[in-house]
Structures are given as structure tokens and as C-alpha cells.
Design a protein that fits this description.
Elements lengths: L1 H13 L7 E7 L13 E7 L13 E8 L4 E4 L11 E2 L10 E9 L12 E4 L18 E2 L2 E3 L4 E3 L2 E5 L8 E11 L2 E5 L8 E5 L5 E5 L15 E5 L15 E7 L3 E6 L2 E7 L11 E4 L4 E11 L7 E7 L4 H8 L5 E2 L24 E4 L3 E7 L2 E8 L9 E4 L1 H5 L3
Antiparallel strand pairs: 1-2, 2-5, 3-4, 3-6, 6-7, 8-23, 9-10, 10-21, 11-20, 12-17, 12-21, 13-14, 13-20, 14-15, 15-16, 17-18, 18-19, 21-22, 24-27, 25-26
């Protein structure tokens, strides 16, 4: 059978049907285009035939490969290699310089052993070696934006473990809130000095309240961990009529440093004797577990320190008009201790080219996903989810935007 194939291929060659097998889509180190080739890259290609050519000849039996530098000087030639290999063909010339431009081309022999045409020249560039990297990591400042916004005449709070109310630390106080849980429960931190400290009071859409120790968690936690419950109660247990979920509720919380009392819509649900350490104070704060939201139409905080008149410290009416609501929001901290899951970071730096720019490359590494622009032109998107200890980088040709006048 092999002898018959050889005789047939030889007959086709004599009739002039050979030599038309060509290469398409040339790969350098497995990608095209390639700007990050190593000092000894590997090459690959696909095969093609023109319409009407005999498919019996569409089998590679050998190749010739040449590599040139940017000046067109031949650096290495494979010579005639008898091989059907089209992937992982190694470069065997002198090591290529880092951050330099090269090109290569190839031609193949078909089933009859006749060479086809040279491919188009395929440019590529080498990347950086480990010793060539001089860049430093660009890191975001600690924390992120506060997940607070004015929405439909209310303050909407989303997942965050500590959103302090704009008032001083207190030991004896009263909080009055008109609120409603939107997703999950609405949470208030009492006697807290920061995330994961103090006591957490949660109200769900059915009117149930739970007082427990504040949980410690960080994004991207799927849920806040369970902690020891001090007390719980609900409207049904208090004998009140049912109220439709999503309704606005009037919540009052008082804490004199010894007993915490919780009332909902005028009905007391909890009275928990839990003395705080002598002389300690805490900052009231909002707490929203992961993937939860709550809305506040109004918030009032009154200092009820014994032995002196009550002092209204905070009276925010987010339902009193957009301008007033935004004025109230401006008094809240706009940052939190951690980054929000939908929050992007924008890094910006300025460089001034000197002389004439003939060639410019951007080499960039990033944790997870990043997008890069130069002079307002998007030039690179890169994603890296490497294992610990691994690092990957990508490259882009930025000659055109770098040459553009500012």
C-alpha cells in the first residue's frame, strides 16, 4: 500500500501537481502575535492547499525554517529537515536577546517531496528575562469605597462588616431608625470598636430580631459566620399582628452600658442584661452581611449619659428630599476596611518620552484581571490566576500611542 502511494505521488509530481502545499498561521511559542518569546522559542504552523489541488499531496514530509533579526540578517536556518512535525519545532540558533524584534519563515515539502513556497515573514518579539524586570508592583491603598448610596429617598447599605455612624463613641445612647431589610437582614453594631467587635443586632423581613456577638469576616466570604446568640424575639412572639415583608419598620434600640432594650413598631421585643466593661465606649455602626442590603429612611442617635440632659447627636432624614439626603450622606465615612466585590482600581502614571520614539513595548503583570490604556487608547487586557509562587506577564506594542502628541 505504501509503495502504491509513493508511485502515485511520484506520478503526480511528474505531471506538475506537486509543490503547492503551503503554510498558514505561523505560531511563535504557541501564540500569534507573540511579543513575549523566550530566548529559544518554538515554532508551529498550519498547512493549506489552494482550491483544486490534489488532497493526496496534502501531507508534510519535511520543512525548511529560517530566523532573522530586525535588520534582516539570517541568524539560523534549520536546513532541509525530513519531518511531518508542525508543532513545537525548536529554534536551535544562538540565544535571542531579551526585548528584541525578530522574524521567521518556513516552507514545507509535500507528499511527493517537492518544496512549496516560502511563507510570509512572521514577526515576533522576545520578552523580558527575570533579571530584566525593574518594575515595582502598583498597589491600591488599604480599604475600599463605602457601600452606601442614596436610593429612592433612603440610605441603602450593602455588604460590609463595619460602617460607622457619624457620631462619637458612646456608652449610653438611644438609636431610632425607620428601616427595612431589602435582602437578608438589617444589622446594627453596638459597643463596637471596629469590624468583628461588639454586639450585632439583626432584623429580618419578618420582624424577628437577634442579638449576638459580632462576627469577623472578609470579602469574598459567602456569608457572615454564626456567633453566639444572646437573645432573640419577634413580633409574633409579642402578640402583634403580622406586617407584610418589605414594609418600613420603626426600630428603637437603647443601651445604658448594662441593659440593651429593643423595640419594633412600639413593642418591646428584647431586654437583655449584658453589662459592658467599666469605662468602655463603642461606636454605633451599620453591618450588612455578604450579599445583603438594607434601607434607612431616617436615623437618630441620642446621647443618654446619666446625670445630664439628653443630647441629639445625629438626625438624618434621607426621606426629606434628595438634596438633604445627599448632605446627610456627605457626613458618613466614604471608605471601609476592605474592597467591595464590584470595585475596580484605577492606577495612573505619567511618562514623558525623550527623543524620537521608534519602538515602545508595555510589559505588565497583574493579579487577576487588569486592563491597560496609554494616552486614552486601550492596548492590553490580561488575566492571571496563577498558583502561589507563579507569575505571568503580558505585552503590548504601544509604539503608536507613545508617538502621539499629548
Amino acid at each position: 500500500m505504501a509503495q502504491q502511494d509513493a508511485l502515485r505521488a511520484g506520478d503526480l509530481a511528474r505531471r506538475g501537481g506537486a509543490g503547492r502545499l503551503h503554510t498558514t498561521t505561523l505560531f511563535t511559542d504557541g501564540i500569534v502575535p507573540c511579543l513575549t518569546a523566550g530566548p529559544s522559542p518554538v515554532f508551529g504552523w498550519q498547512l493549506g492547499q489552494d482550491d483544486g489541488d490534489d488532497p493526496a499531496l496534502a501531507r508534510q514530509t519535511g520543512y525548511d525554517l529560517e530566523v532573522q533579526d530586525a535588520r534582516g540578517t539570517l541568524l539560523w536556518s534549520s536546513g532541509q529537515v525530513a519531518s511531518s512535525c508542525q508543532r513545537g519545532v525548536p529554534y536551535e540558533g544562538p540565544l535571542l536577546d531579551a526585548d528584541a524584534d525578530y522574524s521567521w519563515r518556513v516552507r514545507v515539502r509535500d507528499a511527493a517531496g517537492v518544496r512549496g513556497p516560502w511563507s510570509s515573514v512572521q514577526p515576533f518579539s522576545t520578552g523580558l528575562t527575570d533579571s530584566s524586570w525593574h518594575a515595582e508592583w502598583m498597589c491600591r491603598a488599604p480599604g475600599g469605597r463605602a457601600p452606601l448610596e442614596v436610593f429612592s429617598h433612603a440610605l441603602r447599605a450593602a455588604g460590609s462588616h463595619f460602617l460607622p455612624l457619624p457620631c462619637p463613641a458612646l456608652r449610653s445612647f438611644r438609636i431610632e431608625a425607620r428601616l427595612r431589610p431589602v435582602m437578608g437582614s438589617a444589622g446594627l453594631l453596638l459597643r463596637s470598636t471596629g469590624a468583628g467587635t461588639g454586639l450585632l443586632l439583626e432584623l429580618d423581613a419578618t420582624g424577628k430580631v437577634v442579638l449576638r456577638h459580632a462576627p469577623a469576616w472578609e470579602i469574598p466570604a459567602m456569608a457572615a459566620p454564626e456567633t453566639a446568640v444572646l437573645a432573640s424575639g419577634g413580633r409574633a412572639a409579642a402578640g402583634a399582628a403580622d406586617i407584610a415583608p418589605g414594609s418600613w419598620r420603626e426600630l428603637t434600640v437603647s443601651d445604658d452600658g448594662r441593659t440593651i432594650r429593643v423595640s419594633l413598631d412600639g413593642t418591646e421585643l428584647l431586654a437583655v442584661h449584658e453589662p459592658a466593661a467599666e469605662g468602655t465606649q463603642g461606636v454605633p455602626a451599620l453591618h450588612q452581611g455578604p450579599r445583603s442590603q438594607a434601607e434607612y429612611a431616617a436615623l437618630r442617635i441620642t446621647d443618654t449619659t446619666p446625670g445630664r440632659p439628653e443630647d441629639l447627636l445625629l438626625d438624618h432624614r434621607f426621606d426629606a428630599g434628595d438634596d438633604h439626603a445627599l448632605d446627610c450622606l456627605a457626613q458618613w465615612s466614604q471608605t471601609t476596611g476592605h474592597r467591595q466585590p464590584d470595585e475596580w482600581t484605577l492606577f495612573r502614571t505619567t511618562f514623558q518620552p525623550t527623543g524620537t520614539v521608534r519602538r515602545a513595548r508595555l510589559y505588565a503583570a497583574a493579579h487577576h484581571h487588569a486592563q491597560f490604556s496609554v494616552a486614552g487608547t486601550h492596548c492590553l487586557s490580561t488575566t492571571s490566576f496563577g498558583y502561589p509562587g507563579e507569575g505571568y506577564y503580558d505585552a503590548a506594542d504601544i509604539t503608536e500611542p507613545a508617538c502621539r502628541p499629548p
